[in-house]
Specification:
The complex is a heterodimer. By secondary structure, chain A is an alpha+beta fold. Chain A contains 15 helices and 19 strands. The chains are: A alpha+beta, B mainly alpha.
């Protein structure tokens, strides 16, 4: 009997202890979320992928960051200016420490910029204009550029600052990912950001905890103590885990699941127009198309044919039927939120099958023609369905489109440089620095021999007066003048039917309605904005 | 016996080499990994440099030879996606798949065999008809649909079981086990049931057919004539003789459970080798795909070997034959 009593006592005691422990952790706020992709590396320079960079930037910080309205604001730099046309000077924040306690100084900035430019880093392309990074004093840095570089600060948003001492101590002073051994920075992190890495199980689970010493806590206290990220690839499972209460938030919800989540009590949909523009492109450089029954000439060289394609595509139908309303039809190759976007130009040419038919006849194709069409089926929201709709619409003017929809690994291998093996294709584009120049120089500038200019100009459009304009935009430091030049560029692209812009898709997230989030048009998910009620 | 094992080992190497060769020949058609590895601003020169470093410009024969050469030294390279040694990734994922397969196979046998015996012995009973009807549903529904349905019922509607992942796992050296925690057991139920359903049906039907067959044979009639109890006849004589084909099939099926856990693992985000393979395919992660395919080839060979050895235990005639051959 006493023995029994003893064990009861022990049980009660341990139960009390468990409850106490639970109560202790009960105050800690955990935020659980999931996505289909994984932040494949914790090394912020190794991969320039929207999701990886966005995830890692909760632990690491750049010199300047974007706030929830996408405006540039100080992060590790407190002020910056163009002291000379080719020198950007940054004043650094003082009293900042890395997660391991080492103080942050100018040496870390010089080191990080060099690491980001050196072979092995995937960010070198974004910093191509940087000639030298110079320390002026412990808290001042000069970026010396090759010619004036008006949008260098925009690019620096993506360049994380790492600790020089930490990288040296762990033999990871270069970002090379695929050397024979795993780099220490792949699964470890030491930044200055609001969250610290606690546990990393690649492709399964990543746990971050609040950085109690973050410099920004005074202005913006982070509400969450612990963040648990799970990778869940199957969309049905991801949504189920949200509905069953195992998750607080799901990143990237496809249009077909939105209604169901909205109808569920206690759930909330977050949406904002994405900065990516989905468009169609046409081969305008070859003398004969690779995939067409028209021989000896290229129909897409005739502007009337491009316009006919444009006007027979009913974007409103694509928006309502394929995208279920979650799209923003566009006349421009950049959307609102991108610097240089001009709302006065953003009026689509009308949907007009009769006019299209007439234009095609005038161009010499009264019965249409046949053309191949390349499309990814796992890259953009409902990409293959959009392409199928386009095929049906073009059939109305007698154009027989042979659709080849395939996985992105095969699709990009086919249409990209140096082969550009395509006649007609669907692509999406978000300008990395959120500036129109990036779209113009990648998509509309004449391809250069080294593929630096017009790298993604798959159709090979070439217009020397537009090229001149782009070169002016590249070096114009006066933002008002610069934006005027950009407007000119945008209207040339529009009026020449260089591309057929379709829409900007929407960023759609879902969460419990007790969660407050800040969805951003560039797909950036900053955990510092998460609030749990 | 040793000669037999050596011969089998030799076969295993041959199977793995063939699988590897076919795999490398197919990788050309999976797509280009480079675009998945770099951002949109990476210059063409940098893309080419990466392609060169990874040896992707070589013909598949050269790539295969390099793979074999490195594999012989126990190196499988770094995953393109995770930038970690492939061997390490596979070792991390293997326990999850093996535990899931083991639980699923146990379920399939523990439920499938009794169901087969019952339906074989009581062919006309309504319960047999019901069980067979249900098992037909089990084979006809695709795995992912069953998985999603189970999630909908037990995770979303009832909220009893988790919809994804492995729950809490405990590390024993390199082996991570979910079978020692309550949370781990809760997490394994739905995927294990999903994965076992097809095999369970198969085993039920196989045992039933074999039982019916064996019960018609003369020695069963003699056994009854000798006045043995039903129990002795059914289980001592009939069942034991149905087991040889059952073990063959169950063994081969264990191989396919491991290999085809892919779909179940994807539905339940079970962090095993099947999910790893799917992730590798979408990313065109050639080192991971190659190592996985060769490993699965190896599993099949080993399982077949074990099945062959089990025959000898179960069927005395095979033992006698081999001994005679040995003597002769």
């Amino acid at each position: 009997m006493t023995k029994k009593l003893g064990s009861v006592c022990r049980w009660t005691l341990s139960a009390v202890m468990v409850i106490a422990a639970l109560a202790g952790t009960g105050e800690a706020k955990t935020f659980r979320w999931a996505n289909d992709g994984d932040p494949t590396t914790m090394d912020p320079h190794a991969r320039s992928d929207l999701f990886v960079t966005s995830f890692d930037m909760n632990m690491y910080e750049p010199l300047l960051r974007r706030n929830r309205e996408l405006k540039l604001e100080p992060a590790l730099a407190t002020e910056w200016s163009n002291v000379e046309p080719t020198i950007w000077r940054f004043k650094l924040r003082q009293g900042v420490e890395f997660h391991d306690g080492t103080p942050f100084t100018a040496d870390d900035v010089v080191f990080s910029a060099q690491r980001a430019i050196a072979p092995g880093s995937d960010l070198a392309g974004q910093l191509a204009v940087v000639k030298e990074v110079k320390k002026v004093d412990d808290y001042t840095i000069d970026f010396i550029t090759d010619g004036p570089a008006p949008i260098l600060p925009n690019y620096l948003v993506g360049i994380a600052i790492m600790s020089k001492a930490w990288c040296a101590a762990h033999n990871t002073t270069s970002a090379a990912m695929l050397k024979d051994e795993e780099s220490y920075a792949t699964r470890n992190a030491n930044g200055t950001g609001p969250f610290m890495l606690k546990d990393r199980q690649p492709a399964v689970r990543t746990v971050l905890v609040k950085n109690p010493n973050w410099w920004g806590l005074k202005e913006q206290p982070t509400d969450v103590d612990e963040v648990v990220f799970s990778r869940i690839e199957n969309v049905a499972t991801r949504v189920a885990a949200l509905l069953s209460g195992e998750l607080d938030m799901v990143y990237n919800v496809p249009p077909q699941d939105i209604e169901r989540i909205q109808k569920t009590q206690g759930m909330k949909i977050w949406e904002t127009p994405e900065l990516r523009t989905i468009f169609l492109g046409m081969d305008q450089s070859r003398d004969e198309l690779l995939e067409s029954n028209v021989k000896g000439k290229n129909p897409f060289k005739d502007k009337r044919v491009r316009q006919a394609f444009y006007q027979v595509i009913d974007e409103d139908a694509i928006k309502t039927k394929v995208m279920r309303g979650f799209a923003h039809p566009t006349a421009l190759m950049v959307g609102p939120g991108i610097n240089g976007y001009d709302s006065t130009l953003d009026k689509r040419y009308p949907y007009d099958p009769l006019a299209a038919k007439r234009l095609l006849s005038e161009a010499g194709y009264p019965d249409g023609f046949e053309v191949g069409f390349d499309c990814p089926n796992d890259r953009y929201v409902n990409d293959e369905a959009i392409c199928q709709a386009v095929v049906a619409m073009l059939a109305r003017i007698g154009v027989k489109v042979n659709l080849l929809a395939q996985t992105k690994a095969k699709y990009f291998a086919k249409i990209n440089a140096p082969g550009y093996q395509t006649s007609f294709y669907l692509l999406g584009w978000t300008p990395t620095p959120l500036d129109t120049l990036h779209m113009l120089s990648n998509l509309a500038q004449t391809r250069s021999k080294d593929f630096r200019d017009g790298a993604w100009n798959e159709g090979g459009y070439s217009n020397l007066s537009l090229d001149e304009l782009i070169q002016k935009i590249q070096v114009e430091l006066d933002s008002e003048k610069r934006n005027e030049l950009i407007s000119k560029g945008l209207s040339i692209v529009k009026e020449d039917f260089v591309y057929i812009p379709l829409h900007q898709q929407m960023v759609v997230w879902a969460s419990r309605d007790s969660v407050d989030l800040a969805p951003m048009g560039n797909n950036d998910f900053q955990l510092r904005y998460v609030k749990l009620k | 016996m040793i000669a037999f094992l050596v011969q089998r080992l030799y076969q295993a190497v041959l199977v793995m080499l063939t699988v590897g060769l076919i795999a490398f020949a197919l990788f050309n058609y999976v797509g280009d990994p480079i675009n998945n590895m770099v951002g949109q601003d990476t210059s063409l020169a940098d893309r080419e440099r990466l392609r060169q470093e990874l040896g992707l410009n070589d013909t598949f024969i050269v790539q295969f030879a390099r793979f074999v050469g490195r594999a012989a030294r126990g190196e499988f390279g770094l995953s393109y996606q995770q930038a970690r040694p492939v061997g390490q990734i596979i070792l991390e994922k293997m326990p999850a798949t093996l535990e899931l397969s083991f639980v699923a196979a146990t379920l399939a046998l523990a439920i499938g065999v009794p169901m087969g015996i019952y339906t074989g012995l009581h062919r006309q009973s309504w319960l047999s008809q019901l069980l067979l009807g249900l098992s037909l549903v089990g084979v006809s529904l695709p795995t992912f649909l069953i998985g999603i349905l189970l999630i909908l019922v037990f995770a979303v509607t009832l909220g009893w079981l988790p919809s994804f992942g492995r729950g809490n796992v405990v590390q024993f050296g390199w082996w991570s086990s979910g079978l020692v925690t309550l949370d781990g057991w809760r997490a394994i139920i739905l995927p294990a049931v999903t994965l076992s359903l097809f095999q369970m049906t198969l085993i039920t039907r196989l045992v039933r057919a074999e039982m019916i067959e064996v019960l018609r044979t003369d020695y069963i009639k003699f056994a009854r004539a000798r006045g043995l109890t039903n129990r002795a006849v059914n289980f001592g004589h009939a069942l034991k003789n149905t087991l040889v084909p059952v073990i063959t099939i169950a063994g081969l099926q264990l191989g396919s459970i491991i290999a085809f856990a892919i779909i179940t693992e994807t539905v339940f985000q079970w962090p095993g080798m099947g999910l790893m393979f799917i992730q590798a395919v979408t990313f065109v992660d050639i080192p991971v795909m190659a190592a996985y395919l060769v490993l699965v080839g190896f599993f099949f060979v080993v399982i077949n070997l074990i099945v062959d050895l089990l025959y000898h235990v179960l069927d005395p005639r095979l033992r006698v034959d081999r001994e005679r051959v040995g003597v002769g």
